Amino acid sequence: MEFKISKDFIAHIEQLISENKEQELNDLLQDVHFADIAEIMDELQSHEASYIFNTLDSEKTAEILLELDDEVREKILKNLTAKEIAEELDELSTDDAADIIAELSKEKKEQVISELEDVEHAKDIVDLLRYDEDSAGGLMAKELVKVNENWNVLTCVKEMRAQAENVTRVHSIYVVDDEGRLKGRLSLKDLLTTSTKTPISEVYIPKVDYVKVDTENVEVARIMQKYDLEAIPVVDELGRLVGRVTIDDIVDVIKEEADKDYQLAAGISQDVEADDSILELTKARLPWLVLALFGGFISVKVLGLFDAAMKEHAELFFFIPLIAAMAGNVGVQSSAIVVQGIANNTLNGSLWKRLVKEFSLSLFNGLILGIILFLGCYFLLSSDIKVAFTVTTALLAVIIVASFLGTFIPITLDKYGIDPALATGPFITTSNDICGILIYFFIAKAMLGF
Amino acid sequence: MEFKISKDFIAHIEQLISENKEQELNDLLQDVHFADIAEIMDELQSHEASYIFNTLDSEKTAEILLELDDEVREKILKNLTAKEIAEELDELSTDDAADIIAELSKEKKEQVISELEDVEHAKDIVDLLRYDEDSAGGLMAKELVKVNENWNVLTCVKEMRAQAENVTRVHSIYVVDDEGRLKGRLSLKDLLTTSTKTPISEVYIPKVDYVKVDTENVEVARIMQKYDLEAIPVVDELGRLVGRVTIDDIVDVIKEEADKDYQLAAGISQDVEADDSILELTKARLPWLVLALFGGFISVKVLGLFDAAMKEHAELFFFIPLIAAMAGNVGVQSSAIVVQGIANNTLNGSLWKRLVKEFSLSLFNGLILGIILFLGCYFLLSSDIKVAFTVTTALLAVIIVASFLGTFIPITLDKYGIDPALATGPFITTSNDICGILIYFFIAKAMLGF
């Protein structure tokens, strides 16, 4: 069962630190999971976090390092020598070690690598550092269990036991030929139930899903989800088995991708967290606000074109926020559904069919909203019936155009290889604001004449 | 490597169906993964999809059923008798079978259950149907490998082999006492490397994470992610082991949760897809638009209060969309970051501290945007310097208030147990529109006097 981190518990830890009671602290944290210790350290001040880190033994600290918030980890790594960092990394699997090394400065990176004890481990880590972090190569670990197709089950089991020492979780046993090329896989279950003298070539399953080192991480995630895989082997350009990606790495990819889309929809362009610095948050947020501000300039100009309306139909100006808000909301709804469809690969059929559907949908919604607006104008806001009719017609037109743009823009962006999620949020609301106001006043001008 | 579904391939299949070439179709789909066949069927018309379904053998069709879009599955199930459905379900694991049964009508449900061949399997499925689908009980499968603490390694390996027949993936071997209560776990690796006479009670790991049947699915996902688990045992109220949840189910939970938040941020209140019917899409979208429309009514009323300004400072009205858009965008940014922080459990510190930070951030961003706006007003839009100054001051005030509301509302909702994601999207933009306009005209009235 999960350990609950209470305020009292943290206060107790802070007190032990301030009283320099190392032994008691160690005893207290003895049975606490490293993920929980990391969470506690994230809450503490940095000198307190460092104190805890130095108190614990390196088997635990290595795992804690992985779980810490980026900022906290950075501070702790700064206080460690290259040799100390290397000792932590020796405890970790290659992919996790490579992730941590990748965060270091170039100089420290080299120092740390030269301090790694286990030469094979070091080689594997250096190898992993070559790959783009958003590719299968960047996700994979070198640790896996592989056997030669020419062995028999007995040799295989022996080799497996030796190899399994370094592998936390054995999902599949991969079968390779003498050149190291991936040939297939063996299931643990088959191995348990086959006679020990059977040659591997007779029992292995030659059909095995795999990805290449340069396959994009989101693509790896998609394949693993689709085929319900818990691990997938990674091969190089020559088809040689070089690593494997496990489902827990994919969970992170899925989470990050979803977070990114969500943030883009809200007008936040980098992966930021609430606890990041004001400068980082500004970098992620300000560009979108500037975009919206420039959109605002255009709308000021557009409204200026229609100032003649002010004398006779001042009331029209009171409806601007309503029209703009409806245009923005409809546009975001349409684009969000398309963006999600693209991301989940559930968007079937042509653009044309989709636009027709969106047209019917917005016509249907627009008519209902139009009726409410008309009644509202007439009874609630006691507008002139001609104005009520004008505003209602404009709303219908604005909703249809907004849903068109919301559908069309992300599909088109995706077609040209641009992330469609960019279309949601401020971009779509700003362009729909301007379009909406233009349509509104054009219709008003045509119907009321000013 | 992944199989790519081309248009040609689908056209070829459609032709085979229209020519009624069952054997050729079967040969063609022989080596195609069930997930791919499901994807093909989703693209076809429903009578074609049914044709394919009837051609294939039930080992494959059962898995296909699981992967189909809800609508397509529903149509196919409608065409099958209770006995046929039961045959499909006999091929599936208990959790998947329960998920499909749960979609049937009450009457058909009972018929199908009575037709299930394997009594143990049927019992397990019925048992699973009791649980809320959003709980650990609703996620778990009954298939697992468990051994008694009183056995020795040899008995254990024998039992395991027998049990493993029904379990696709053995993640952990769970250890229970005579009453079936979860005592701990065994790793496959330990089992491979321990002498066969050792009693289990000596080798098992007594510390094991678990969840209760009524733990919420998002909580299960959080725990499994945090502790990096690939499977977690589920216990009932008495601590008895009743099932296990595997990471692939959790991937779905994470995906759904992220999709839900994203849709709420875009003003879509139900789990809909681009391919859902217009009626379903309307149900998910229209309520938010009606909310925005009523917000629009209020803004019309608010603007009506300030119509005196129109005579002397008509220009002020041209800035309404700019002010409203900035208020909306800032509000959504702030609330999105808070909502994500709450969802990912990374929000440390008090509400007060967060508001102070958000204040500094919005002051900083607001000043930069204010300078751009002032220069823009003066040079681009050639406004009166007094108006430029008024609009700039208002913008600063509006940004600060919007970011306050964006931070305050989701945190408060969360405190009272309401999904904070409800605060993002139309709700926050609408309330910020109204607040923004009020603030803008109050400041304008104070500074320009009308």
Task: Characterise the protein shown here.
The structure is a homodimer of 450-residue chains. Chain A is mostly helical and 450 residues long. Chain A has 3 domains: 7-131, Alpha Horseshoe (MgtE N-terminal fold); 145-253, CBS-domain (Roll), CATH 3.10.580.10; 278-448, Tetracycline Repressor, domain 2. Helix content of chain A is 66%, strand content 6%. Chain A is built from 23 helices and 6 strands. Chain A has helices spanning 7-18, 22-29, 34-43, 46-55, 58-67, 70-78, 82-90, 94-102, 106-115, 119-129, 136-139, 153-164, 188-193, 200-203, 217-226, 247-265, 278-305, 309-313, 315-318, 320-344, 351-380, 385-415, 426-448, and strands spanning 145-148, 173-176, 182-186, 211-212, 231-235, 241-246. A 3-stranded mixed sheet of chain A has the order 1-2-3. A 3-stranded mixed sheet of chain A has the order 4-5-6. In chain A, strand 1 (145-148), helix 12 (153-164) and strand 2 (173-176) form a beta-alpha-beta unit. In chain A, helix 20 runs parallel beside helix 22. Chain A is globular and about 90 Å long. Chains A and B meet through helix 3, helix 13, helix 15, helix 16 and helix 17 of A and helix 3, helix 13, helix 15, helix 16 and helix 17 of B.
